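Thanks for the sequence, V.! I ran Phosphopantetheine adenylyltransferase right away. Repeating your input here for the record:
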Amino acid sequence: MKKAVFPGSFDPITNGHVDVITRALPLFDEIIIAIGTNAEKKYMFSLEERKRFIEETFANEPKVKVDLYQGLTIDYCKEQKADFLLRGLRNPADFEFEKAIAHANRLVSGIETVFLLTAVDTSFISSSIVRDFIRNNGDYSLLVPKAVKK
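Predicted structure:
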């Protein structure tokens, strides 16, 4: 079974995330969307809300599971018996950042990282942009799946 973990804080999940996950579905038998927690970070949405947003968005996709984790992502991958990490790349800065992490993860654990370029129409979307729209009462409806708009 080809199993991938797509880690992130998903605060909130965006249409960019959804695009990457949807396009990765034919590549894997299972994709675990793993919501990581970081005590240093201030989140706009609770863990429960973020998990619900993702579960509702992928309610009709049996290959997608949603889980919470703490600690090193590679340790979580080992627990889940996942041989792949899934990451989306929006721009060259994402690539440089993710490349270093991917090399370290492969060296330490043997886990491969699969990169998918974001679609042109979602490549500018980030959770931080969405949060800024929400904080300032802007229209963010085109940036997120329906579950987040409620």
